[in-house]
Amino acid sequence: MSKVSPRFSIITVTHNAENDIEKTFESIKAQSFADYEVILVDGKSEDGTIERVQKLDMPSLTIISEVDHGIYDAMNKGISVASGEYIYFLNAADYFMNNLVIENVNKIINELGSPDLYYGDIVGYVGDETTYLKQPEIESRQFFLRKTICHQAMFVRKELFSICGNFNIKYKIAADFAWLANAYINHNKKFSYHSFPICYYCLSGLSVKKNYFYERYTILKKYFSLQQILFNLYLPWMYKRIKRLARKSLNA
């Protein structure tokens, strides 16, 4: 008798995350909707991350612990062993809003007609400070000139990775942006948004680094002219930066 695939595959990527992983996994374990599997992809941690996870007695848990080539290589490893209908990435230090998230997401996906990709909202946090990050709705390919979707906000049909490919590991920070643009622009996949808070997202992650803009530029030039990119991405960024510097000088 063949094994029935779960509705969701929740993939968590870690490296030396002993102090963060318990909060993440306890938020998964507390979910009222139990039709999911958990896949931990660990980059050969040396701080006791794996030992901490093993003590949590997580249901339906698969552990991969080996050296990888960065976060997106680890995410691809998780995708390769996932058996769920929808894939969701919840990394160490991120955690679900409450114990009803997966149950409500399942209902929303059904109501939306099982889209290729569903996404909601997230709450960013640094220490005790939080910010509600409402995700923007996609109306056309022009969306990608100024905006993106946080991968912690989205649930993706696993089959999309077979159709659109996995994350391109040549990008160290913006591979999820590259994947989204490819899926939407080149493959015409359906992205459905419904405003609903999914998780707390640690804002001290990779994508806040400065070279994110360079990677994003190399991706955008595949789809847009240099003039479009400068006008929509860099000029607004430069304006905000100059305004911030001017404010600092006035307050000095």
Structure description:
This protein is of the alpha/beta class and 252 residues long. Helices cover 37% and strands 22% of the residues. The termini are far apart. The relative contact order is 0.14.
CATH 2nd-level architecture: Alpha-Beta Complex
| CATH level-3 fold name | Spore Coat Polysaccharide Biosynthesis Protein SpsA, Chain A
The geometry reads as globular
Q: Please trace the helix and strand order, writing H or E for each element.
A: EHEHEHEEHEEHEHHEHH
> Structural class, please?
alpha/beta
Distance between the termini: 72 Å
Count of the separate structural domains: 1
What is the count of helical runs? 9
Ranges with pLDDT <50 over ≥5 residues? none
Q: What's the pLDDT, averaged over the residues?
A: 91
Helix share of residues? 25-40%
Number of strands: 9
Strand percent estimate: 15-25%
- CATH-level-4 superfamily name: Spore Coat Polysaccharide Biosynthesis Protein SpsA, Chain A
How many strands, what sense, and barrel or not for the largest sheet?
Answer: 9 strands, mixed
CATH class: Alpha Beta
Give a short synopsis of this structure.
The protein is α/β, with parallel strands linked by helices.
What are the main properties of this structure?
252 residues, alpha/beta, Spore Coat Polysaccharide Biosynthesis Protein SpsA, Chain A, nine-stranded mixed beta sheet, 37% helix, globular
